[in-house]
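Protein Record: Sequence and Backbone Structure Tokens
======================================================
Scope: a single protein chain, as residues and as a discrete description of its fold.
Tokens: labelled as protein backbone structure tokens, with as many entries as the chain has residues.
Position: the record begins directly beneath this header, with no further notes in between.
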Amino acid sequence: MGTEKSVVNISSTLNLNKMKILKFLFIGIGTIVVLVLVAALFLPKTYRVERSVIIHAPQPLVMEQVKSLKKMNEWSPFTEQDPEIQITYTGTEGQVGSSASWKGKKAGEGSQTITKLSNDRMDSKLIFKKPMEGTSTAFFQTERDGRDVRATWGMEGKNPYPFNVMCIFMDNVIGKEYEKGLAKLKARCEQMSRIVSN
């Protein structure tokens, strides 16, 4: 009988400990959620990401790699993240209204459409469908910098409450990808420029 009581007591103690752990766990999660919701009240609902690079190549050559969404996706870091990504192009390549729609396991689902285009700038609208819905605007600006070109890639948008808490991470997360893409664009354009020069 004594042994049975001991087993029962141990079992009861274990159950109580489990309940206490679960209680503290729920309290901890609840506290974090409340803190995030409160913090989101004071955080901006807009974000802007911008990165630049100096490219030793003619400005028209750089713009040719930007205004064509097909060519852009050859150096964009976002397409290489998902080997299984499927991209569909519509409209006249390199013209306002041309669009690229993507779908992939890692890349999610969305589209990019050129809205404005000039000799030194391209603006586009990004529509995200999966894993989260949202819209933003992106731009690519080129400026003469002596004999070189300063290329700037940027994006801006809005996140409604409470998802605006993500705005504070956008510059770091997207900015790193922009830096990778600009490095590939720089290498691509400078190689093409050397070939043309020779």
About this structure: The mean pLDDT is 82. The chain has two domains: 1-42, 45-197.
